[in-house]
Amino acid sequence: MINRTEEEIISNWNGNINKPLVSVCCITYNHETFISEALDSFLLQETDFPIEVIIRDDASVDKTADIIKEYVKKYPKIVKPIYETENGFQKGIKAFPETLKKASGTFIALCEGDDYWTDIKKLQIQVDQMNNVPNVDISFHFINELKDGKEGKILGKQANETKVFLTSELILGGGEFCPTASLMIRRECIVNLPLWFYNEAPVGDYFIQILASLKGGALYINRNMAIYRVSHASSWTSNVLKNLKNSTAHFYKMIHAMEMLDQYTNFKYKREISIVNSNFFYHIAKNLYKLGKADELIYVATQARQTTHYSDNKIKILFKLITFKPLQYLLKIKMMNRPYLFSMIYNKIFISIFFRIYFILMKDVISVGKNYNFTSRFKIQSDGSRFQLKIGENFSARRNLMFTFQNASNLIIGDNVFFNNNCSLNCLDSIEIGNDVLFGENIKIYDHNHRFKEKGKLIHEQGFTAKSVVIGSNVWIGSNVTILMGVKIGNNVVIGSNCLIYKSIPDNCVVKSDQQLLITDN
Fold it and tell me: Where are the beta strands (DSSP E) in 271-384?
């Protein structure tokens, strides 16, 4: 709590203390750690007009209310509390409108209990600026975010100069276009908010911004004067948007409220509202996908196509795909928690068709036996020279298999060969693999190496030394193995994980890396 007394604050004011020019409206819930910082920032304001602080505690279960009572005791003429006995948020009661009912100032300044102001001239600056533009009913400025005790990115910096923004820009900008802790609004424009605002709008500040800007736009003041504290455990973001079911219900309500706003403004902002709603539909679709609700997702996509005519092209394409009948069946299978079935169908139908076409087009350099199974992340790279790739029957590979060819090189793979995830074969001369070979994850094979012995010459200018790699049949190679040029691996060989194979291995051998922990003083 600051040392400034109530008498010192009031002594600078002109006018009747019982008729404040500005009402600071603050809402709070479980903010015992932060509320003093907010209240102090209000009471430190240097103004030549009277202010009042209306603070509404929404039945906090911590010591927030007790802290407020201490401020009321020290500043009884300025701090005017509202103590709720039941949590209104859980009943769908909007906090700011309830607080506004108690405010009597000509101007209303908003700030939530976990945010605070950083400029002691904030209220004076905003009042003076708004008096210079009397047809504008709302003003705002940019602020800093605070995360883990450190100031982070700037929020709400919409221009490099003070200017007026249109209502259409506020709608498209979303609730973060005008940071709540920066808002000052003429009371007369929000005392008679439309009924749908109280009954339908799931959030207050976004719609208050829009409604307050309808007359003459919103005045942006190019000055940093507040802090927004990034969501903590008791914040609205933590309680609503991070829960899939809660956020889905929230976005449905936002769409309905935006439709009410569309009617209220005689469809003047139909395009902007359509764009915003398309984004809400997109968030709903993502949530429904994660929740596994295929039928509802398809219904939402259909609704979005019918009602959001001005949406982003990517979102349009997404909803068109979801409403495409053949893809709906795959989508339902995927979302029935049967990923194997989905993967099988996807690979057998789409990937299989793709590779069949690809292998036909590349038949002069690629030949593949029967019963192959590739994933969509199989890549073949070439420097443009005429390479040769021959793959036997019953070939199978998981994700991220890459074959790289340079200098008309060759790769021959026998029957019944399997590659696990993230393997790469790099050919400059030739690599030959026998039958019944199993490769673990993250395996790399090179049939070449950089030359580097010419002093005074850059390594990448010295070219390569190349020598073929040969791997026999019935071989198992464990994860994270690297095989270098010139190596010949015999039949019936097992190579353990994390080995660097730089010399040849005869038949019927087991190879392992004898790794030991060596701990020394630093």
Answer: 366-368, 379-382
Does residue 450 have an active-site annotation?
Answer: yes
DSSP codes joined into one string, 245-302: HHHHHHHHHHHHHHHHHHHHTTTTTHHHHHHHHHHHHHHHHHHHHHHT-HHHHHHHHH
Q: Say how far apart CA 33 and CA 321 lie, in whole Å.
A: 48
Q: DSSP letters of 445-476?
A: EESEEE---STTS-GGGS-EEE--EEE-SSEE
Task: Find the catalytic residue in 256, 309, 450, 460.
Answer: 450
Cβ(189)–Cβ(211) below 8 Å:
yes
Distance CA 107, CA 130 (A): 10
Phi-psi region of 443 (alpha: psi -120 to 50; beta: other; left: phi over 0): beta
Burial environment of residue 89 by CB neighbours within 10 A (0 to 12, 13 to 18, 19 or more)? middle
186-202 pLDDT, tens digit per residue, is 998 888 888 898 888 88
pLDDT tens digits for range 211-233: 999 999 999 999 999 999 986 55
Looking at the chain, how many residues does it have?
522
Phi then psi dihedrals of residue 22, to 5 deg = -125, 130
Contact 269, 307 (CB under 8 A): no
For 447-459, write each residue's pLDDT tens digit: 999 988 888 888 8
